[in-house]
Design a protein that fits this description.
The chain starts with 7 loop residues before the first helix and ends in a 17-residue tail after the last helix. With 551 residues, it is of the alpha/beta class. 39% of the residues lie in helices and 17% in strands. The strands form two sheets. Strands 1, 2, 3, 4, 5, 6, 7 and 8 form an eight-stranded mixed sheet that branches. Strands 9, 10, 11, 12, 13, 14, 15 and 16 form an eight-stranded mixed sheet that branches.
């Protein structure tokens, strides 16, 4: 049978032969589209930018109707005129996760971010824009906040966040929750490195509320700002309790009861003005010194009124703020948490131009006794001042820790230990001034020499003891008093003896626990001189990852 397959030589020859050329029909010449001239491109850019800056009229009017400013108006009040440099103005959501929001992708994605100056000093800011998606946080929105936070940390500048948001953008699902986590992680990384300020100017619900809690200072505006983890509807569904937004998380609640709000104001303008005032007193970061003003001659400044403010009688009340006003430059100070834990005062001020943190017992509230809330308030303030190199001045007039089952069951030991820990850990210059009484463990906790105060000054009215003379005599001489018929006379004699031997103003000075007993009128000059003496203090903390504070 004859084979029909080609032989080997034929196959090789065909493989080496040139391939046939296929001729297509002629194609039209593709000319590049004519690019618009530069003038037209610039006009298009300007029109888009103007549209973004103006926002939607109806959304802006809705904000104004609620008594609120727009994000850009707020930044105009906060920053020096013409200083704002915006980043990511054209950022839009990708609509790649979850559902589209009303089918739209507006520029900025509901947050304005960038940098500007306050009194000429650089800060980084972000302002949530309730007019776009209710200021809700999604992937692109969070990315802009990340960038502002990262730049603030990299450049060593304060970070300010203006919060006005409906919370996580539900349409983006878990991506929004992940985005919050990135913000919280950055807050923690920046803590103690740069000052972080949160201004709540509208709703701040759910996980968003943790951002203010992680910042160093939180500002709120009455009636328009609310913070809570679960809103009124959830509360009603789970517990049956009926509560309004304001009752649940308004400014008054967080200023007076929870202690989350550091400062509270009636309007946005005064709120933002005090943010500027606060920033002017803070260093840019933990390596920079606090901004100093010109010296005021405080080292030779007598204040006669100080001898009149504090009553000699240990049980008479007075306002410690009057003492603070006499000590500081121009009588001006910024009090933190004014309406929470009023039995202790925490304030930022200047003495001879130098920024200082002041902690003082307040005798007109609970006789100045320390309780759980006061301990927490003062501890956090002490830690902030120490983190940013701000010297501490502690004004002591304390009868002890507040007694009672509520305090003991509520953890007064643990909370009091927070203040003790904060002072023991602090390495900044520390001056203690004992105005009148300092009893028991509260004396130790209020920055005594035993826990590291650099300088302890006392007025001639000071009484430092385990407890008051009356109480001490009742304990020590209990049997003697019970055995005598004239116990009142004996008690009086023993009290006088106890005072003369153990509680007189110079007893602690004799033991080196007080460095000097000063005339009250010289307190401002003595503190200013002490601060000048301690200005070069350098003390490195022990090498460790971190301590285990009694949280």
């Amino acid at each position: 049978m004859t084979s029909v397959l080609p032989d080997k030589d034929t196959v090789i020859a065909e493989a080496r032969a040139p391939a046939a050329v296929l001729v297509d029909a002629p194609r039209p010449v593709q000319r590049p589209a004519q690019q618009p001239p530069m003038r037209q491109l610039r006009e298009q850019r300007e029109a888009l930018q103007s549209q973004i800056l103006a926002g939607r009229n109806e959304a802006v009017e809705r904000q104004h109707a609620l008594g609120k400013r727009t994000a850009r108006e707020r930044l105009g009040h906060l920053l020096d005129e013409g200083s704002f440099i915006e980043i990511d103005m054209y950022r839009r959501n990708r609509a790649a996760h979850g559902l589209k929001v009303n089918g739209s992708r507006p520029h900025t994605d509901g947050v304005v971010a960038g940098s500007g100056t306050i009194e000429g000093r650089r800060v980084f800011v972000y302002a949530q824009d309730f007019a776009i998606f209710g200021g809700s946080l999604g992937e692109a929105h969070a990315a802009k906040i990340y960038k502002a936070m990262d730049l603030a940390l990299a450049t060593g500048c304060p970070l300010i966040g203006l919060n006005d948001s409906g919370g996580a953008r539900i349409q983006e699902g878990v991506v929004a929750l992940d985005a919050y986590g990135g913000i919280f992680r950055r807050h923690v990384q920046a803590s103690g490195v740069i000052p972080q300020i949160c201004v709540v100017l509208g709703p701040c619900a759910g996980g968003a509320a943790y951002s203010p809690a992680l910042c160093d200072f939180t500002f709120m505006v009455r009636q328009t700002a609310q913070m809570y983890l679960t809103g009124p509807d959830v509360v009603a569904a789970v517990t049956g309790e009926q509560v309004t937004h304001e009752e649940l998380g308004g400014a008054a609640v967080h200023a007076q009861r929870s202690g989350v709000a550091t400062f509270v104001y009636d309007d946005e303008e005064s709120c933002l003005q005090d943010v500027r005032y606060l920033v002017a007193m803070l260093p840019g970061n933990n390596l920079d010194p606090p901004p100093a003003a010109p010296a005021r001659g405080a080292t030779a400044d007598e204040r006669p009124r100080l001898a009149e403010i504090v009553p000699h009688e240990p049980n008479k009340a007075y306002d410690m703020r009057c003492v603070v006003a006499e000590l500081v430059d121009d009588g001006e100070f910024l009090e933190l948490h004014e309406d929470w834990a009023k039995n202790v005062i925490c304030a930022l001020a200047r003495i001879d131009g130098e920024v200082v943190g002041i902690v003082g017992n307040q005798p007109i509230v609970l006789a100045g006794a320390l309780d759980s809330a006061a301990s927490q308030k003062a501890a956090r303030f002490v830690r902030f001042c120490d983190a940013f190199g701000i010297p501490l001045v502690t004004l002591v007039d304390v009868p002890g820790f507040l007694p009672g089952t509520d305090q003991e069951f509520g953890g007064i030991i643990r909370h009091g230990a927070k203040l003790l820990y904060a002072y023991c850990e602090a390495t900044v210059p520390r001056i203690q001034v004992i105005l009148r009484k300092a009893y028991g463990g509260a004396y130790i906790v209020m920055d005594s020499r035993s826990i590291g105060a650099d300088l302890s000054l006392a007025w001639p009215t000071n009484e430092i003891a385990v407890m008051g003379a009356e109480a001490a005599v009742n304990v020590i001489f209990r049997k003697e008093l019970a055995a005598t018929a004239d116990s009142a006379r004996l008690r009086s004699e023993l009290v006088c003896e106890y005072m003369e031997k153990l509680v007189h103003p110079y007893y602690s000075a004799e033991l080196g626990l007080v460095d000097d007993v000063i005339d009250p009128v010289d307190t401002r000059s003595a503190v200013a001189s002490g601060l000048a003496m301690l200005r070069g203090k350098r003390k490195a903390p022990p090498q460790r990852k971190h301590g285990n504070m009694p949280l």
